[in-house]
Structures are given as C-alpha cells and as structure tokens.
Write a structure and sequence with these properties.
single chain; Nuclear Transport Factor 2, Chain: A; two-stranded antiparallel sheet; 6 strands; about 20% strand; disordered C terminus
C-alpha cells in the first residue's frame, strides 16, 4: 500500500520534468531572430535617404554606403517608396522581395521596379548581404545608375482626311566660307551642278554642321523655298 504514493510521486516528478523541458524548448525557439526586420530596416533607411543607417543594416557598410550615395545623387528622387513583399530563408541565408517606386524630377509617374535583397545570418543576427544587385536587379559590379532623358519621334500631323501634312525628308546643306573662296565662277558652277539639292531646306531647320544629309521636316505637296 505504501508503494502506491511513492510510484505516483515519481511519475508526477517525471511528468513535471518533461513539461519543463518542453516549455524551455518552446521559449528558445520562439525567440529565434527573424530576417524580416533586417530587410525592413534597410528598405526604410534607404527610402528615407538615411544612407548611413541603410549601410549599417548590411554586412559591408562601406561598400553599401558608397553605392547608395551614388544612386541617391544620380536619381535625385523627391520621394521613394520601398515595400517589403516577402522573405524566404534557407538555413543562414535568405532572399527578401521588395517593390520600389521612385518619384523623379520631370516625370509624371514614379519609376517602378521589383527587386530582391540577399540576406545572411551572422552571429545570430540577420543582415542584408551587400551586392550591387540589391539596388536594382540589373545593376552589376562596377556599374552605376544614371538618369538620361530621350525625346520620342515627332508625331505625324494629319489633315481632316487623315493625310500627313509633314514628313521627314533627306536634305543636303551646303555652306560657303567667303574667306576661302578663290574662284567665284567655279564655285557657282559647282553649286549649279546640284539642281534641287538646296530646295529641301525649310525655315526653322537648323542642321548641324558636317551632318549632311540631315533630317528636316518639309511640307508635303508643296515646293519648299529655295536657299
């Protein structure tokens, strides 16, 4: 009869020991660092223009700050939005997906693209593994971002019937330097041997010197004024 309580006490002690281990295990794994805050810290600092803080969130602050500063000066963005879209991990490495929207001077719509951040865990701390591709997926080592402005081809001007009023034509621009003319008659004869070549020039057309033939606009269906 006395063995009952003793056996029960040992069983209870063993049960408490198992619960204690299980509880301790849950506590340890529940506080494991996650990579999301590291990625978000980098994106938030970069979007706000805090280059030092963004660099500090990487495993190579000096290189990160140098590139991010160049990008900041090149874009001259008035506003930036960098949104974390998701994080995946594989052991001590990971990938963070983000979307970027930069408001640039002179552009009505933001410049948008999707990018990724490489992540790495060092001493139980997650960092952005720095690489130029963290800024833009097409940016490689030794490359720089720059902003260039290009103009689209001039749109066609149509009349009420849909016929083009203007169109591109090839013209030849002839320039004469009076100081270098030695034989005026010979020059006149040379110019006369090119009939119609000068008739393609139109008022307001300013071809670049030495760029013959040039692209100018002439009204179709009418003979342009002669030079």
């Amino acid at each position: 009869m006395r063995l009952g309580p003793v056996a029960l006490g040992r069983g209870a002690a063993a049960l408490l020991a198992v619960l204690a281990v299980a509880t301790a295990g849950c506590s340890v794994f529940g506080h494991a660092p996650k990579p999301d805050p590291a990625a978000q810290a980098f994106l938030s600092a970069w979007a706000s223009g805090d280059i030092a803080a963004a660099g500090a969130a990487t495993d190579d602050p000096a290189a990160a700050q140098a590139t991010l500063q160049q990008v900041k000066e090149a874009l001259a963005a008035t506003h930036g939005e960098l949104s974390l879209r998701g994080v995946s991990t594989d052991g001590d490495t990971g990938i963070a997906n983000y979307s970027a929207a930069w408001s640039l001077p002179g552009l009505g719509d933001p410049w948008r693209y999707d990018g990724t951040l490489a992540l790495v865990k060092q001493d139980s701390t997650w960092k952005v593994h720095w690489r130029p591709g963290d800024v833009h997926p097409r940016l490689g080592a030794g490359q720089r971002l720059s902003v260039t402005r290009t103009l689209p081809e001039r749109a066609a001007l149509l009349d009420r019937a849909g016929t083009a009023l203007f169109g591109p034509v090839d013209v030849v621009v002839v320039g004469v330097e009076p100081a270098k003319v030695r034989n005026l008659a010979s020059l006149a004869g040379t110019l006369a041997s090119w009939p119609g070549r000068c008739s393609g020039r139109r008022r307001g057309c300013s071809p670049r010197p030495g760029s013959s033939p040039s692209r100018c606009w002439a009204r179709s269906g009418r003979r342009p004024p002669r030079c």
